[in-house]
């Protein structure tokens, strides 16, 4: 096999570790705990979404394959040059009004988006408007996390704050999960710190640092999570299934 094909094969293997990391992800993904926790909890709730589904802030649609009960999957992004060239959205909006009729969707997905919305009431009002009565919303938001995608990082939500916001817009929480509510949260933050201070932009050098400096903390976090108790007050992300009432 030519060298460039081997490089591409390795690159593709690493890329697949981004949102659903397995054993390899321990060594190449500095966000192993966060991404694995989200994937697991979203997987457990995905079967509850059915029919015509809107993915708000869809990006590369990393969780689309999990929603096997849906009939149509529409990705939507804020209208920008970057989102039109890099993402997989079919629809773009102006950051305020969703370009759909009332009661248009059976389900809505919004993963790790709400913290980037400056006016959450307006955003959730639009979700509620386009969602049919008894329609399902699957929404995730970080609770303990560093600033990211600056300067478009505006908020963190506790379980109580998120529940309150959803209720204001006729969205009733059906199930609420907290990812990594154990010692893993501490090691994920340590790994985030190391990731942010690595001085190299070259990916190969960064990967070397991931293997040498980050993976040991990931492995230690995995081991200690089996020995130490849960702590439901300290966790990485909220994963919530709600329905429109």
Topology of helices and strands:
Layout: H1 3-15, H2 25-28, H3 32-45, E1 51-56, E2 70-78, H4 81-86, E3 91-93, E4 105-111, H5 120-130, E5 131-142, H6 159-168, E6 171-179, H7 184-197, H8 203-225, E7 237-244
Parallel strand pairs: 1-2, 1-4, 2-3, 4-5
Antiparallel strand pairs: 5-7, 6-7
Helix pairs in contact: 7-8
CA-CA gap between termini? 57 Å
Count of separate DSSP helical elements:
8
Please trace the helix and strand order, writing H or E for each element: HHHEEHEEHEHEHHE
Q: Report the portion of residues in β strands.
A: 15-25%
Gross morphology is globular
CATH superfamily of the domain at 36-181 and 232-244: Vaccinia Virus protein VP39
CATH architecture of the domain at 36-181 and 232-244: 3-Layer(aba) Sandwich
CATH topology of the domain at 36-181 and 232-244: Rossmann fold
Please estimate the helix content: 25-40%
- Rg over CA atoms: 19 Å
Largest sheet: 7 strands, mixed
Can you give keywords for this protein?
245 residues, alpha/beta, Rossmann fold, seven-stranded mixed sheet, globular
Your description of this structure?
By secondary structure, the chain is of the alpha/beta class. It has a domain at 36-181 and 232-244: 3-Layer(aba) Sandwich (Rossmann fold). Helix content is 39%, strand content 22%. The protein contains eight helices and seven strands. The chain has helices at 3-15, 25-28, 32-45, 81-86, 120-130, 159-168, 184-197, 203-225, and strands at 51-56, 70-78, 91-93, 105-111, 131-142, 171-179, 237-244. Strands 3-2-1-4-5-7-6 form a seven-stranded mixed beta sheet. Helix 5 (120-130) links the parallel strand 4 (105-111) and strand 5 (131-142). Helix 7 runs antiparallel to helix 8. The radius of gyration is 19 Å and the shape is globular. The relative contact order is 0.16. The mean pLDDT is 94.
């Amino acid at each position: 096999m030519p060298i460039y094909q081997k490089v591409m094969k390795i690159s593709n293997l690493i890329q697949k570790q981004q949102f659903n990391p397995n054993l390899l992800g321990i060594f190449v993904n500095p966000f192993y705990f966060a991404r694995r926790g989200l994937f697991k909890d979203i997987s457990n709730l995905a079967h509850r979404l059915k029919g015509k589904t809107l993915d708000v802030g869809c990006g590369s649609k990393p969780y689309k394959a999990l929603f096997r009960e849906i009939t149509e999957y529409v990705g939507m992004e804020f209208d920008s040059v970057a989102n039109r060239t890099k993402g997989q959205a079919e629809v773009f909006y102006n950051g305020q009004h969703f370009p759909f009729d009332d009661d248009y969707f059976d389900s809505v997905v919004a993963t790790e988006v709400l913290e980037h919305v400056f006016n959450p009431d307006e955003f959730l009002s639009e979700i509620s408007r386009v969602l049919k009565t008894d329609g399902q919303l699957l929404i995730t938001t970080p609770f303990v996390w560093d600033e990211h995608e600056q300067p478009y990082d505006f908020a963190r939500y506790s379980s109580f704050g998120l529940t309150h916001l959803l209720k204001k817009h006729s969205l009733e929480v059906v199930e609420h999960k907290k990812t990594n509510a154990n010692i893993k949260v501490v090691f994920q933050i340590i790994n985030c710190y190391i990731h942010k201070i690595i001085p190299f932009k070259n990916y190969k050098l960064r990967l070397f640092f991931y293997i040498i400096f980050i993976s040991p903390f990931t492995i230690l976090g995995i081991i200690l999570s089996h020995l130490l108790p849960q702590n439901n007050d300290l966790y990485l992300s909220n994963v919530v299934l709600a329905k429109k009432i």
